Amino acid sequence: MNQLMLRTAAHCGRWTAVNQTIRTNSDMAEFREIFSKARHIAVITGAGDLATPECFSRHPSRVWEFYHYRRELSLNAQPSPAHRAIAECEARLSRQGRSLVVITQNIDELHQRAGSRHVLEVHGNLFQTRCLSCKDVEINHKSPICPSLEGKGCDEKGCDGLLRPHVIWFGETLDSQILTKVEKELETCDLCLVVGTSSVVYPAAMFGPQVASRGVPVAEFNTKMTVNTPRFKFHFPGRCAVTLPAALARHESEII
Question: What's the pTM?
Answer without folding.
Answer: 0.84
